[in-house]
């Protein structure tokens, strides 16, 4: 049975046209029967013809008819420059209704496109559709759709309706084409890692976090976000499929969501009854125009963790009386008798200056590398202020990042305040072939001494900080250089690596004496996508090692750290480790397993031997234990084994809200027990619900 008629069909946005009416150089899209009509009648003819064609072909789906549904569907469509009808978005609760509307639009004929200054252009329209259909005479364009300049003047005199006219249009997500970051989560990034690393892609995967519009060229976020959508009720859609709050205007949009990380667990070797994390927060993000985006998230958290994690958090406590720094989060104050309270705020502004340049300013984290770890710039430390410039063209991407960091130890504090230091780094990524990528990295850290502040010398966007460091005083900064590489063996196997050089002496390297000056580290890894031809099965193996004294400095403030945490590997230096990771995802179900075995060298710090063996990057090189014969694992040699298994269900793919459970086993075996480290085994069980937008690292 055919139905006909619409409540209203009106023009909503016509990007090429001015706002105050149509000039003699502008024409509406035109069906063949409208080609001879008068200019002023073009709009009416277009709408009436479209209405007639639609109602002649539309069939109300049987399911909709049987359930006596009454409501409204919203269709946003475009007439392209070629005169084709293109559906942009359909808002309807029945999938059958969406399919029928899509079918009718696909059968519409090709027409003459709209023009502007005599050139074809596209036009976008909003099409409200009452269900069930009943004929209602269309409003005249002069009455509702288009208000002339003269009519506007009359309306302004009669009443001011500007405020009431600000209402949300049907929300069409623009996140996927935006300049917003994809939240930095290993599980989240694993979903599109394979697509980003296909042979022949001109992507640059080492600089993270990624921007949505970079990833969307290779990965279909819309398909992921729409997965499993079938809920009609507003509450169901908000919990399972959508953002909590959305608003969209003609040239702006924003979303708001609640953030939670609610975990409860048990450390079976602890006397404490249970562990927990209680994080609540809110995310607000959006866009103004096509090129400017903003994001902010605020967390309020209380928690207590497994004993070994608590001890580490307390061992890096800041000056001033607060009991701990929660790794990756920030300074914590006491909560109840045995917990911590650690609020965190992150946010940024992102602006696309042109097709080649993007600038970001915010408070958050950065990561450089293709591995699970990074020896150059990692996301394990607390958030910090940063300014980042990305330049992309041809086969290269060049990233400049400037950061403000803090040293929060008592011995470097000044008049009760924390010591500020700054970092600038450059990273150049070049796709030399369709398979091989080479990256060049350098960074320099300097302190705010002699009223130096942020040294403008380091704003130089051209690589080679060593020469700048020399010209400003060789002891005024600490420069690090590095290399990255990636080779795409095929679409399933990627090989990658890093090499970091803090300091080295050619004479000492080739002399074979293993001098302390050879402060080096490297990483080797392999990724296997769709392993053994099982879709979405991911395997990864990685080896990391860093020689003693790397990242430290003789001027103790100039270490490669922030808030008593390393900016590179979470173990600092003087270690080697091997990592194995497996991940699998099927629709909204996911699981992972991780195994890490490492050898580390700690200081003794027992009063009889207070020498520096090269693991703690916050100690001065002047206290080093050896000049030559320096080996990885020297000092209080410790073998550590860590394993973690996690499984869960993605409740809402749009916000990445997950229900999960995890089990951690850790074995820590030092040569000598000290006040800070001792032999122990830990079994830690956790279950919870979490908005997964940052990485937790428990491998200390």
List keywords for this structure.
single chain, 700 residues, mainly beta, TolA/TonB C-terminal domain, Porin, four-stranded antiparallel sheet, 33 strands, elongated
Give an overview of the whole structure.
- This protein is mainly β and 700 residues long.
- The protein folds into two domains: 26-131, TonB (TolA/TonB C-terminal domain, 2-Layer Sandwich), CATH 3.30.2420; 186-691, Capsule assembly protein Wzi (Porin), CATH 2.40.160.130.
- The strands form five sheets. The protein has an 18-stranded antiparallel β-barrel.
- It is elongated and about 100 Å long.
- Main beta-sheet strand count, sense and barrel state: 18 strands, antiparallel, barrel
Q: What is the CATH top level name of the largest domain?
A: Mainly Beta
Determine Rg (CA atoms, Å).
Answer: 30 Å
Helix content: 10-25%
Percentage of β-strand residues: 35-45%
> Total number of β-strand segments?
33
The CATH topology of the largest domain corresponds to Porin
Instruction: Outline the low-pLDDT stretches.
Output: 1-25, 135-158
InterPro entries: Wzi_sf
Organism: Gillisia mitskevichiae
Protein name: Protein involved in gliding motility RemB
């Amino acid at each position: 049975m055919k139905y006909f008629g619409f409540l209203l069909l009106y023009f909503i946005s016509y990007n090429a046209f001015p706002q105050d009416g149509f000039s003699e150089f502008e024409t509406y899209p035109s069906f063949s029967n409208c080609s001879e009509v008068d200019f002023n009648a073009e709009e009416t003819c277009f709408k009436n013809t479209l209405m007639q064609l639609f109602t002649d072909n539309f069939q109300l789906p049987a399911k909709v008819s049987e359930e006596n549904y009454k409501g409204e569907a919203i269709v946003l469509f475009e007439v392209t420059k070629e005169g084709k009808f293109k559906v942009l978005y359909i808002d309807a609760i029945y999938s059958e209704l969406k399919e029928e509307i899509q079918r009718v639009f696909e059968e519409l004929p090709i027409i003459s496109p709209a023009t502007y200054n005599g050139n074809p252009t596209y036009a976008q329209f909003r099409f409200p559709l009452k269900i069930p259909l009943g004929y209602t005479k269309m409003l005249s364009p002069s009455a509702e759709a288009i208000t002339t300049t003269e009519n506007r003047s009359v309306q302004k005199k009669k009443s001011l309706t500007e405020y009431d006219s600000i209402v949300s249009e049907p929300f069409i997500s623009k996140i996927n084409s935006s300049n917003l970051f994809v939240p930095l989560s290993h599980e989240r990034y694993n979903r599109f890692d394979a697509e980003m690393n296909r042979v022949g892609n001109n992507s640059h995967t080492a600089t993270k976090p990624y921007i949505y519009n970079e990833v969307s060229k290779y990965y279909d976020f819309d398909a992921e976000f729409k997965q499993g959508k079938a809920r009609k009720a507003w509450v169901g859609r908000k919990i399972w499929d959508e953002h909590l709050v959305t608003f969209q205007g003609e040239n702006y949009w924003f979303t708001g969501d609640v953030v939670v990380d609610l975990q409860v667990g048990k450390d079976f070797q602890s006397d404490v009854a249970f562990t927990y994390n209680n994080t609540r927060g809110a995310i607000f993000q959006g866009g103004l125009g096509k090129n400017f985006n903003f994001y902010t998230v605020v967390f309020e958290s209380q928690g207590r963790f497994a004993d070994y994690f608590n001890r580490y958090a307390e061992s890096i406590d800041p000056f001033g009386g607060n009991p701990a720094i929660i790794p990756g989060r920030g300074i914590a104050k006491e909560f109840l008798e045995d917990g911590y309270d650690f609020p965190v705020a992150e946010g940024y502004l992102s602006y696309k200056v042109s097709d080649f340049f993007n600038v970001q300013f915010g408070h958050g984290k950065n990561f450089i590398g293709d591995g699970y770890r990074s020896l150059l710039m990692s996301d394990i430390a607390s958030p910090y202020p940063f300014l980042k410039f990305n330049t992309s063209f041809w086969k290269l991407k060049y990233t400049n990042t400037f950061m403000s960091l803090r040293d929060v130890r008592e011995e470097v504090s000044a008049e009760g305040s924390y010591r500020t230091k700054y970092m600038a780094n450059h990273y150049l990524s070049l796709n030399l072939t369709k398979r091989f990528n080479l990256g060049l990295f350098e960074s320099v850290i300097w302190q705010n001494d002699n009223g130096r502040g942020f040294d403008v010398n380091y704003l130089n966007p051209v690589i080679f900080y060593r020469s700048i460091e020399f010209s400003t005083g060789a002891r005024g900064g600490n420069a690090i250089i590095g290399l990255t590489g990636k080779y795409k063996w095929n679409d399933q196997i990627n090989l990658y690596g890093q090499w970091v050089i803090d300091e080295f002496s050619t004479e000492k390297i080739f002399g074979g004496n293993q001098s302390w000056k050879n402060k080096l580290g490297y990483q080797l890894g392999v990724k296997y996508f769709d392993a053994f031809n099982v879709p979405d099965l991911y395997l990864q193996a990685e080896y990391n090692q860093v020689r003693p004294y790397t990242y430290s400095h003789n001027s103790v403030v100039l270490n490669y750290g922030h808030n008593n945490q390393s900016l590179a590997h979470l173990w600092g230096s003087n270690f080697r480790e091997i990592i194995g990771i497996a991940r699998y995802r099927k629709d909204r179900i996911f699981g992972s397993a991780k195994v890490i075995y490492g050898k580390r060298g700690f200081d003794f710090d027992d009063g009889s031997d207070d020498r520096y063996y090269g693991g703690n990057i916050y100690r001065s090189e002047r206290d080093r234990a050896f000049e030559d014969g320096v080996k990885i694992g020297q000092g209080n040699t410790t073998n550590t084994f860590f394993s973690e298994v996690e499984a869960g269900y993605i409740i809402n793919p749009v916000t990445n809200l997950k229900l999960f459970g995890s089990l951690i086993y850790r074995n820590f075996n030092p040569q000598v027990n000290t006040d800070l480290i001792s032999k122990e085994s830990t079994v830690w069980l956790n279950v919870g619900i979490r908005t997964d937008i940052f990485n937790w690292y428990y491998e200390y």
